[in-house]
Amino acid sequence: MSGIFGVVENNSRVELDALLTKMQGVLAHFDWHQVETHCDQSRGVGLGRVGIGLFNSLPQPVWDESGTAALVMAGEIYNKQALHQFAPPELPDEQFVLKLYKKLGATFVRYLKGVFAIAIWDNAQQQLIITNDRFGTYPVYYGLVEGRLVFGPEMKAIFCDSSFPKKLDLTALAQYLRFQFLLEQRTFFENLQLLPNASILSYTPEKRHLQIEKYWDISQIPTLPASLTFNEAVVEASRRLKAAVDRLCQGNYRLGVYLSAGVDSRVILGLINPNLGPVTTVTYGHPQSRDVVYARRIAKIMATNHHYFAFNDGRWVQEFAPLHLALTEGEHSWIHSHGISIGGESRQLMDVNLTGFAGGVTAVDWQDSALWFAEDNPAFETRLFALLNQETTWPSLTEAEEATIYHPNLAGQLRGRAFCSLQQELAAYSHLSPYQRAIEFAVNNSDRRLFMNYVVFQRAFLEQRFPFLEYDYAEFVYALPPEMLAQRRLRRAAILKMMPRLAPIPYDKDDLPITSGQAALLRAKVTQKGKNFVNRHITPIFPKYHTLYADYENWLRHELGGWGEDLLLSERTLQRGLFNPDGVRSLWRRHQTGLEMHTIGKLAPLMTYELLLRRFLDE
Fold it and tell me: Contact at 8 Å (CB) between 179 and 168?
């Protein structure tokens, strides 16, 4: 995937060129991945960047005129024109950013709008600066050992330094089994962390001083007038989103959209200027799923260059599991790997995917007033824990299951640790209102640590652009009250207003057309019930499409069963001393009976964690 990497130290106790070469080897996953490095052994500095040959075409690192500051960067800057007083806007992004740094220092990032990860080594200051955008769209992992700071877009880059210890973080394990993702900057290994989004990391190797400053959070979003009506919000949000899509369609790239039957991708597609020519759309899944059937209808109306890739069975999961693990390093369970199997084909069709990522605000999608308007901290913490555990992805381990899953030697340490760690993380959000706290938490955690991993593995094939993360649009939407956003209300209204011909095509979640007003919605529901009655009691004349585009639960009972047994029940797994063999076997048997729904969310993280251990500890 695209990103930045490097190492800085004071005493030059390692051969930096050899270390950078090793990092380059583990980060270049395909022959189209391009890597550039710079090594200065005398100063103890090595910098590099990896990309797929589309964005950031300027040779890196980029140096300032005096030759004292070097920059590596992944990503794009969108507001150079507005910052023309600091640097010529026509400069490439990398040179533009470096000039901003020279004039403004490390605070330059506060002025930028875009998606990026940037590292700058300043010889004059003898300091490394690493920073990222507000949403942390480019991961940067880092570790500090013996005064040497090593960083990269994947954990394995840090492990290229053989002196870095691989000690498991048991709190991370507890979080992963209860939430299916990790919180904040934690990784599966102690002393190895993910740079928080909207952060400035500075490191002075001579003093061994590392500091991280958070430069933005939700509280800095301007307050909207209380008199703002829903219709006014629809108009303004649509205007901002249209401006974002127009901006992100610029450049000599083949544009594409991963199209589903949801509302987010169809809105993006509907806002693309038709004068740009046919856009490529891609859909994957079960042939008779709602996503596949309805996306085909959307594509036909919009006259796109549409491509469909079938999931007739689940054998592709095991085939692509090593690649998915290599790119997401266990942070993304294999039940979220859909799309990775078609990355190579998609690369032949498009350069840039206008992704619907963050189209829904997770904090709003929870649909939980008890969270948004919590009376106190305990009410917020307990409600959020329940939502993370049961309603963010497939339901995870319950309290009772957690009591049976760990090895007896660890059960006392790990039971309840996930909730305690959640409480500790939420302490940083105490200055926010409950609703703002929910949004800030989702942006930093469920969005970034779970769903962003789709972007991570797609970036190995395609560049990604994010209309819903454009700052002007996101600031406006995150400032709206939850009742304007719940159930994609704002997005549905935008479809009805700006692209009404896409409204009759049902939304995959409820299989209902997008309508305005309660009367129209009631008519649609009555019609749906009538069709279901005819199909069930008279004759099945109305088509009924699958809700799911990928049937991971049944795949694990059939074609993936042998793979699952090896990962969960082999002696190699059970003798690690982490899990209770009886508890693991019980979960496996329960899943195989098919008598319970959603047991996949309890088993898949266990399987993925074992894959992680085999890759990082056993090899």
Answer: no
Q: Residue 301 and residue 426: Cα distance in Å, rounded? A: 46
Q: Identify the three-state secondary structure at position 397.
A: coil
Distance separating the N- and C-terminal Cα atoms of the chain: 22
Q: Which amino acid is at 69?
A: A
CA 173 – CA 86 distance, rounded (Å) = 46
Residue 527 pLDDT > 80: no
Retrieve residue 563's tokens: 């793979």
Domains belonging to the chain, first-starting first, are 3-167+188-216 (3.60.20.10), 224-360+451-531 (3.40.50.620)
CA distance 448 to 362: 11
Q: Are 458 and 320 in contact (CB under 8 A)?
A: no
Mean pLDDT calculated for residue range 359-382: 93
- Asked if 78 and 465 count as a contact pair (C-beta separation under 8 A), the reply is no
Predicted confidence (pLDDT) at residue 173 exceeds the cutoff of 80: yes
Contact status, residue 467 vs residue 268, Cβ threshold 8 Å? yes
pLDDT band at 487 (very low <50, low <70, confident <90, very high): confident
**Residues of the chain by 3-state class (helix, strand, coil), percent to 5:** 50, 15, 35
Average pLDDT over residues 223-238: 95
* Average pLDDT for 438-447: 96
Nearest-CA neighbor of 333 among 350, 317, 351? 317
Token representation of residue 308: 């469909």
* pLDDT for 156: 97
Distance in angstroms (rounded) separating the CA atoms of residues 125 and 401: 53
- Residue 129: its H or E element: strand 127-132
- Residue for token digits 């880059």? 157
Whether 203 and 128 have beta carbons less than 8 Å apart is answered as yes
- What does the alpha-carbon distance between residue 184 and residue 443 come to, in Å, rounded to a whole number? 10
Q: Do residues 177 and 402 lie in contact, with contact meaning Cβ atoms separated by under 8 Å?
A: yes
Strand partners, 70: 63, 121
Phi/psi of residue 328, each to 5°? -110, -10
Report residue 183's pLDDT band, with 50, 70 and 90 as the boundaries.
very high
Q: Which of 346, 337, 295 is nearest to 319 (CA)?
A: 337
CA torsion, points 122, 123, 125, 130, in degrees to nearest 10?
Answer: 30
Distance from chain centroid for Cα 249: 21
Residue 144 has pLDDT above 80, yes or no: yes
Q: What are phi and psi of 71, to 5 degrees?
A: -130, 140
- Going through 226-304 in order, the beta strands assigned E by DSSP cover 255-258, 280-285
Yes or no: say if 71 and 98 are a contact pair by the CB < 8 Å rule.
Answer: yes
- Which neighbouring-strand residues pair with 37? 48
Q: Contact at 8 Å (CB) between 13 and 146?
A: yes
H or E element that contains 242:
helix 230-248
DSSP string, 11-34: S--S-HHHHHHHHHHHH--STT-E
What is the residue whose two structure tokens read 């195989």?
Answer: 592
In this model, does residue 96 exceed pLDDT 80? yes
What are the φ and ψ backbone dihedral angles of 162, each rounded to 5 degrees?
-65, -15
CA 297/CA 320 separation, integer angstroms: 29
Asked whether the CA dihedral 580, 583, 584, 585 is positive or negative, the reply is positive
pTM: 0.96
% of the chain exceeding 90 in pLDDT: 89
Closest-CA residue to 168 (of 414, 336, 393): 414
